[in-house]
Amino acid sequence: MTSTVIDQKVTGYSVRHALCMARVAELAYKDEPAIDKAAREWGFDRVRHHHTTFRPPFPLEDTQAYTLGGRDMIITAFRGTEPANMRDWLSDTTTPPWPGPGGKGYIHYGFAEALESVWPQVHNAVHEFRDNGQTVWFTGHSLGGALAMLAGARLHFEEPYLTATGVYTFGQPRTCDRLLTREFDAAFTDRMYRFVNNNDVVPQLPPEPAFHHVSTLRYIDSTGKIHSTMPVITGLFDHAKGYTADLLAPTSDGVRDHFMGAYITALEKNQN
């Protein structure tokens, strides 16, 4: 993919574009020279790197993201983190929630704090690069997926004249309450694509009923096939194929299915 130019004219969903967005999300884990090199190869002539250190009441040290600017497309990708690093605070329901974008519902405090720390940089880059009516996209894996979804919500509800063309997330945790999910679903019909790979543990956190997922789902079954929904009976059977007692054990299916490489492999398979 690093030698393939991203089609900047895309405006809708396709598996190929999902693969491109997955590659962009994966690149967020790399260093700045690697990101700059890939940006040029993908056909983007401008890059801004976003890095903010902060100390919220959670074991996260920083937020990292980058924004690509091209002639017809702008993409911001947020970096994720390892499941074990998120386990405790994703499971903690005692922390007071944070008001959602535009006063719509509530979101998990940790996600809100992480996005808040880097949002001014992201916001400025998007506005700086958008000099040709470019489409705007957000993507991310794991924690980065939560931040991508919330960035899309923040842009839409706080600046409704500039709504993201699409949001693609991979292994995203639950981010917000039922009110915000309802408002987000209505605003992002056919523009939000939340990929979940089989037994990936992170989308199962934080726990319900305090937190919820946005509706749009692209479920990857145990064979790597992508579905637009997860049938209850077959989904339970499919989950059981790889289930282990400790989903957060380093060798468990829940963690293996969370790796960004597993998402990319499945998307590559669905190109055929």
TrEMBL record:
InterPro entries: AB_hydrolase_fold, Fungal_lipase-type, Sec_MonoDiacylglyc_Lipase
Stretches assigned to the Fungal lipase-type domain: 77-208
Transmembrane segments: none
One Pfam match: Lipase_3
PANTHER family: ALPHA/BETA-HYDROLASES SUPERFAMILY PROTEIN, FUNGAL LIPASE-LIKE DOMAIN-CONTAINING PROTEIN
UniProt-recorded name of the protein: Lipase family protein
